[in-house]
Amino acid sequence: MTRTVPAPEPNVETQPFWDAAAQGKLLIRRCNACGEPHYYPRALCPFCLSADTRWEEAGGTGAIYSLSTMRRGKDAPYTLAYVVLDEGPAVLTNIDADPDDVAIGQRVRVGFVATEGGPPVPMFVPISVSG
Amino acid sequence: MTIRNKAFIAGAWEHPTRLAPDKTTPQLHAECAAGVLADAGLSLTDVDGYFCAGDAPGFGGLSMIDYLGLQVRHVDSTDTGGSSYILHVSHAAQAIAAGHCSVALITLAGRPRSEPFRGMRMNAPETPFEHWVGATTHNSYGMCAARHMHEHGTTPEQLAWIKVAASTHAQHNEHAMLRDVVSVEDVLASPMISDPLRRLDCCVVSDGGGALLVVAPEIAKSLKRPLVAVRGAGEAVKGPRGGMNLDLTTSAAAVSGPAAFAEAGVSPADIQYASIYDSFTITVLIQLEDLGFCAKGAGGRFVADRNLISGVGALPFNTDGGGLCNSHPTNRGGITKVIEAVRQLRGEAHPAVQVPNCGLAVATGIGGALGQRHGAATLILERQ
Ligand SMILES: [Zn+2]
Prior knowledge:
The complex is a heterodimer of chains A (131) and B (384).
Chain A: H1 15-22, E1 27-31, E2 37-38, E3 53-57, E4 61-70, E5 78-85, E6 90-95, E7 107-113, E8 121-126
Antiparallel strand pairs in A: 1-2, 1-3, 4-5, 4-7, 5-6, 7-8
Chain B: E1 8-14, H1 25-40, E2 49-51, H2 62-68, E3 74-76, H3 84-97, E4 103-110, H4 127-130, H5 137-152, H6 156-170, H7 184-189, E5 192-194, E6 197-198, E7 208-215, H8 217-222, E8 228-238, H9 253-264, E9 273-276, H10 281-290, H11 299-304, H12 322-325, H13 334-346, E10 360-368, E11 374-383
Parallel strand pairs in B: 2-3, 2-4, 9-10
Antiparallel strand pairs in B: 1-7, 4-7, 5-6, 8-11, 10-11
Zinc ion (ZN) binds next to loops of chain A.
Pfam family, one (chain B): Thiolase_C_1
GO molecular function, one term (chain B): acetyl-CoA C-acyltransferase activity
Domain Thiolase C-terminal (chain B): 242-382
């Protein structure tokens, strides 16, 4: 990343997500009542409001749904994107790669990027064709 | 209960300033209140309802109601970003229809050019997961444009036609920030801000404000102003909902628009003038489709056929120059959408852009971030 990334502020509802991020694991949340996964994680399911939800480690791969590379300002260039995980939920994130090498539909894999004094955050990099 | 013909817009006033370093934000709200009361021919003591959103300094309406010297029996500080003031007209009409007030004042004002932005809502539940991604309005709407291009083949040239139409109208507005008529080539030659949106795909940043008065029918009919009735309204809020409902090419206007048309009992083909919130060119394109002025995916061709240019196309839009060229007071443009629609229905738009015998108009807006979570509000207004 060309820019410094501000630290997220964990709270009691989502602390396990950040603890896992520090271990290089991406967690999503899944509802035991209706079965639906979701992200960003909530204690109560946004589809049925059941409190019977659990953490689930995502595979960490998905595809770029859309993206936009900021070309102005001190942090430019950096790429904002939605990545749809293979498990279903979309993640608002950055693509940590040369903006000229990224496109909608591209397969990507999660990588964790250091922040200014907080836990690392999940960004994504393209999965190379050979890899 | 329907609000159809239960309330009228008796006052509509846009502050002429675009840069106000020598005034406070409450002062601008008060100037807008005074301006709209003079426009309608009403006085401060006539107001018994007050509507404001997040731009109003203080706690809900409490500070501004006291600052303005109002005595009200109805207050509403619903905030759906820039669409709030379109929604406020609908809520005011509901309150009037229910007998809770009879003269509702709506104000908006702010000074984003003169005063630094005070920061985001850091207590939002999404903040820990989103504030570090570097999202701005530009790249949020940029993602919507990129996805629309991917799904529907929309082109930068087509988006540029929306700016061309706005600038064609703005040349006649003495208060507009950008009065030069631009070409598609000019838009495409402007610097890239966040792909695929260029500088001329973006709205202006302006100090300023505006105000509206929504009144009961008997009061409207006692005044000396043309009668502009609220005929229908709709509102909606949309977000990614756990990341499982992501669709950046359809806005909440796909709900608010049809609801407004249904209440009004009219169809998009009946509309003679459209105020469409234009934070970016893509914002207009997506709302045109969502309101049914063309099919989903056909917005690019619709605008490139010059349909938005008054006197030329089928759907004259934003004849004041809109947010793209005229003003975008405190980064919340909903109120100016209603104001220009009222000007058109009164026959008080600039003669060069006035729609002949304009009898039916729509004002629609998107507030918040189209790429993340946003509100939409749509009004159908009728000259009677
Ligand atoms: Zn559930």
